């Protein structure tokens, strides 16, 4: 069993913050979890709630900022004075740069993190970046997010735009594909509910196969594609001009650009 990582303060427990917290409580990675939030919502079992930073006791080992960027300044008021030089503050605020985090919390170490929505079931992907954390510190932070899925350290903060476009927005692309496959099945004559169930379970099953099988996606695709068969015919249609690869490049390009724009707006 790994060593626990001390006390966590979670500033803001909305959708993302709450989802992360539930995974951390389940994993037991922290000795103590304290939610800093004025909302009088009862905390989940395994956590405590304090209405403000001033009302919390002790010094946290880790702080996770999970509020909306536009209220971050107010939410972080007085936080730096409560931290030690070794406290690690992690921002999961969408579009907020590491520089923004450092301007809000002028003490300790700093990490920018970008988790995606499947973190709520322990199947997420989180991108991480820091320029003031040593290798030991990075290993500990990675373990925090590995409790919610996979965690990957980025070489440059600018990589967050592409990561956001691929893994941050990626679940929505998959959901859209399920919708489209379901609609196509209905168009082909299937009952609407049956088409929906077939499309949904097909994506679930394919994802599980990707996880369990050591072969790459390309190898798995080729394994189920018989020459002259139905799958080959469908894939050829999928790759007709402009083709799925070109479409996905355009999708990632558009989402990356919007990520950059939102980052600039937050900085402004």
From TrEMBL:
Coiled coil: none annotated. One of its GO terms (cellular component) is cytoplasm. Keywords: Amino-acid biosynthesis, Cytoplasm, NADP, Oxidoreductase, Proline biosynthesis. NADP(+) binds at residues 66-69. SUPFAM superfamilies: 6-phosphogluconate dehydrogenase C-terminal domain-like, NAD(P)-binding Rossmann-fold domains. It comes from the Bacteria. Its main location: cytoplasm. Residues 157-262 form the Pyrroline-5-carboxylate reductase dimerisation domain. Pfam families: F420_oxidored, P5CR_dimer. Belongs to the pyrroline-5-carboxylate reductase family. Its EC number is 1.5.1.2. It catalyses: L-proline + NADP(+) = (S)-1-pyrroline-5-carboxylate + NADPH + 2 H(+); L-proline + NAD(+) = (S)-1-pyrroline-5-carboxylate + NADH + 2 H(+). InterPro entries: 6-PGluconate_DH-like_C_sf, NAD(P)-bd_dom_sf, P5C_Rdtase_cat_N, P5CR-like_CS, P5CR_dimer, Pyrroline-COOH_reductase. Pathway: Amino-acid biosynthesis; L-proline biosynthesis; L-proline from L-glutamate 5-semialdehyde: step 1/1. It is found in: Cytoplasm. GO terms for biological process: L-proline biosynthetic process. Catalyzes the reduction of 1-pyrroline-5-carboxylate (PCA) to L-proline. Residues 10-95 form the Pyrroline-5-carboxylate reductase catalytic N-terminal domain. GO terms for molecular function: pyrroline-5-carboxylate reductase activity. This is Pyrroline-5-carboxylate reductase.
């Amino acid at each position: 069993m790994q060593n626990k990582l001390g006390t966590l303060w979670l500033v803001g427990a909305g959708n993302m913050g709450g989802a992360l917290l539930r995974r951390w409580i389940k994993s037991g990675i922290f000795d103590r979890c304290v939610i800093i939030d004025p909302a009088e919502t009862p905390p989940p079992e395994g956590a405590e709630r304090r209405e403000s930073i001033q009302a919390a006791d002790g010094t946290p080992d880790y702080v996770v900022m999970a509020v909306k960027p536009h209220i971050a300044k107010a939410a972080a008021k007085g936080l730096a004075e409560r931290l030690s030089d070794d406290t690690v503050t992690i921002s999961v605020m969408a579009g907020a740069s590491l520089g923004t985090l450092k301007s809000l919390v002028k003490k300790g170490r700093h990490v920018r993190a970008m988790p995606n929505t499947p973190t709520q079931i322990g199947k997420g992907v989180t991108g991480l970046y820091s320029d003031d954390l040593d290798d030991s510190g990075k290993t500990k932070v990675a373990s925090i997010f590995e409790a919610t899925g996979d965690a990957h350290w980025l070489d440059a903060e600018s990589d967050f735009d592409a990561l956001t476009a691929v893994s941050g927005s990626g679940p929505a692309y998959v959901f859209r594909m399920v919708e489209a496959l379901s609609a196509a099945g209905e168009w082909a004559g299937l009952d609407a509910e049956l088409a929906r169930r077939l499309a949904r379970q097909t994506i679930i099953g394919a994802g599980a196969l990707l996880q369990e099988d050591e072969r790459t996606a390309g190898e798995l695709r080729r394994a189920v594609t018989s020459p002259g068969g139905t799958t080959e015919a469908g894939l050829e249609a999928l790759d007709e001009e402009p083709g799925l690869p070109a479409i996905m490049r355009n999708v990632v390009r558009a989402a990356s650009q919007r990520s950059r724009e939102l980052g600039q707006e937050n900085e402004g």
